[in-house]
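User: Some background: our group keeps a shared notebook of sequences we're curious about, and every so often someone picks one and asks for a predicted structure to add to the entry. Today it's my turn. The entry only has the sequence so far, pasted here. Could you supply the structure so I can complete it?
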Amino acid sequence: MERVHRFADRADAGRRLADHLAARPWPAGQVVVLGVPRGGVPVAVPVAQALGAPLDVLVVRKLGLPYQRELAMGAVGEGGVRVLNEEVLRRSGVTAAQLAAVQGDEQREVDVRCARFRPGRQALPLAGRVAVVVDDGIATGSTMRAACQIARASGAQRVVVAVPVASREAVEVVRRDADEVVVLSVPPWFSSVGQWYDDFAQVSDDTVARLLAESTTAPRPATLDPEVTVPAGDVDLAATLTVPASPVGVIAFAHGSGSSRHSPRNRYVAGRLQQAGLATLLLDLLTAQEDGRRDLVFDVPLLSERLGAACRWLAHDARTRGLPLGLFGASTGAAAAIATAADPASTVQAVVSRGGRPDLAPDHLPLVRAPTLLVVGGDDDVVLELNQRAQERLRCPSRLVVVPGATHLFEEPGTLEQVADLAAGWFTTHLHPPAAQPSHHPVDADG
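Assistant: Of course. Here's the predicted structure to add to the notebook entry:
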């Protein structure tokens, strides 16, 4: 949170916030993204898309003291949900009749706004779910505190506040009511949220309603099938298969050392590929019993043998049979992808490596026929040099892309998003249905 960011507009802030949030694990099917109207909704849209979560608004009205409106004695939300600040009420001397009058006025305003933002639709249920509450920034924290309290009172099991920018004081205030506060930028000097945006134009009610309507009609990310088991010789490998409607290909993921099919980075990339119409297989190449063995993590022949078995399984499974095949490898998993693609019997049509170690499969590099994309962080000096040397050994069409400012895990804002977009573009360009496969002609590798 030490970095200070400026944002072009709320959409830019939302994309950068989404990239940051997507690089962490979230419970599948249990997350709801809630934009605080009006300005929080454009920020929340890309967050919901990145997390594969439904989007809604969290309309909150503070209950101000009758004689000092800026001092909140509580808040109300949709469905008559109310939270009270008992300490303020005790000190204020507000009567039950006065509280009821203020609450009635504010509840009517909540109902009017909800009907305007979400005509004919009910609020998404929060009971037992993770509520990710998003706004365009936090100046004092009072409204966001009320939003957290309302989300909690509506049954949310966990409340996560996520904003692009906030004052240090506001972060501390909101932490009293949120389970977690995620902020991209906490500047040492802060006068208003708008000062950190180049474009901070007012968001209209019509815009909020349109964004919410579009979110309900947009294609949802493919749902996860039940966990699948992939036979590979004398072991069964745990995997997750996701098949969108009318898939145009399937991508098998080979994870790197110390990672698994639950890797938030690869899950984020997989989500982007699913949006591009690609099925994905997130696969553990080692069993739970083998996972702690460091020697197996670098056993490229073993890993590639199992990845090859997964490719054959995909070729025969009814959900993916006949789909063109690509491989996505990360770290040491990239070496397994290279070795698998180099097999003369391989049907792999495209390979993408993210921060990979293709150098660990040196003898296989010249044998790969599938177009290969190597993506490396600009600040990952050692791996960058290893990838440059590896590309020199490739004889297939290839490209090396350096993402500026990225380190090995692509944790910096916006960098993993670039990886996902590069991978989606590479696969959709180079995967072809069997009948439409182009003939292979020698092509010079480009850097």
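Suggested note for the entry: The CA atoms of residues 56 and 129 lie 13 Å apart. The first helix runs from residue 10 to 22.
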